[in-house]
Specification:
Shape: elongated
Number of helices: 12
Helix content: 40-55%
Strand content: 15-25%
Number of strands: 12
Strand order of the largest sheet: 2-1-3-4-5-11
Distance between the termini: 58 Å
Radius of gyration: 23 Å
Largest sheet: 6 strands, parallel
């Protein structure tokens, strides 16, 4: 009798394991095909960022959010504006639509404070991403997903010291972006050499290149340039070449162009904060909050970076940058 019972239990367990594995495979296939892997209500989530037009970084964030939305049966709305007041108006539009969840970046927190408070008062759960980790909790957000910009800056300063750099130019491409100021300030704090800020108009790439070129041409002692976004690294490389400078070009953020630059030596290192993960996790966490009242972070930001990427890492990441997920 005992042998028969053992056999029945073994068969039952095997059946459960097989069924569970099959269901997991089905869910994975559904997500890969852009089909929902859940049967929860079709909630609507909106993401409103401070991205300008053509910013590849935010394309990657949006791609992550889109994939999570497909998996979670979410109607996903995305909008952006690099002007604080216009971004706030887009958030108000989302509130008026009575969305079920809101994801915002807080590059210009003063412009966003009042409208985020409106969303929270209206009962809309809010998650902040990328910028505004210091303000997120005070504004009433569930959590913040991104990197601590000051810590990321300090990682850059440490890496510059390892490379024996002495005089560095930190290029800020968006006036009033608190995250950018924190990056350069963090780098300056940990860097053993001297660092100066250069403010440029990030909406005008020829102007960015010309400004960096003029600085490198006038000061030959600059031995490194740090840009705060992947698209600006290419402009810095061109400026270096035109100026005949020997400065190393380094950058925050990663894309296919940066990976290629690391591989061919035109760039020294990059600091990755995993934008795909920021978009994906923001949508997923809002879904989990609605489905199961889950919150991550314990009152602290959920960090997706920084990770210093060098030529040694570029080969392994190249295929992911080409498909637009790193």
């Amino acid at each position: 009798m005992g042998a028969v019972l053992a056999a029945v239990l073994a068969a039952s367990l095997a059946g459960c394991s097989s069924t569970g594995g099959k269901r997991a495979e089905e869910r994975a296939q559904q997500a890969a095909e852009g089909r929902s892997a859940v049967n929860t209500p079709r909630w609507t989530f909106a993401m409103v960022t401070h991205s300008g037009d053509g910013d590849t970084f935010w394309d990657i964030v949006q791609k992550g959010a889109d994939q999570a939305a497909d998996k979670d049966n979410i109607n996903f709305l995305y909008s952006h504006n690099d002007e604080g007041q216009q971004q706030a108006e887009l958030v108000q539009t989302a509130i008026d639509k009575k969305v079920d969840g809101l994801i915002v970046s807080l590059a210009k927190p003063d412009s966003m404070k009042a409208v985020v408070a409106k969303a929270v008062k209206a009962g809309i759960p809010v998650i902040t991403v990328n910028s505004g980790s210091a303000e997120s909790k005070a504004f009433g957000a569930l959590t913040h997903i991104g990197q601590d910009e000051s810590i990321a800056g300090e990682a850059v300063g440490d890496e510059l010291d390892k490379r024996d750099r002495k005089k560095v130019l930190c290029v800020l491409h968006e006036q009033g972006n608190v995250g950018h100021e924190q990056r350069c300030a963090g780098a300056k704090k940990s860097f053993g050499g001297t660092m100066q800020n250069l403010y440029v108009d990030g909406t005008n790439m020829p102007d960015v290149q010309a400004s960096i070129e003029a600085k490198l041409d006038s000061d030959r002692s600059i031995d490194a340039v740090v840009t705060l976004g992947a698209p600006f690294a290419a402009a810095a490389v061109k400026a270096k070449q035109t100026a005949g400078s020997k400065a190393e070009i380094d950058t925050f953020d990663l894309n296919a162009s940066v990976a290629t630059g690391l591989q061919n030596g035109s760039l020294g290192f990059a600091v990755d904060q995993q934008p795909f993960l920021q978009g994906y996790e923001a949508v997923d966490l809002l879904w989990l909050y609605h489905y199961n009242q889950n919150v991550l972070g314990g009152g602290r930001p959920v960090l997706t970076g920084p990770q210093v990427i060098t030529a040694d890492d570029a080969d392994a990441l190249a295929e992911y940058t080409k498909r637009g997920t790193r």
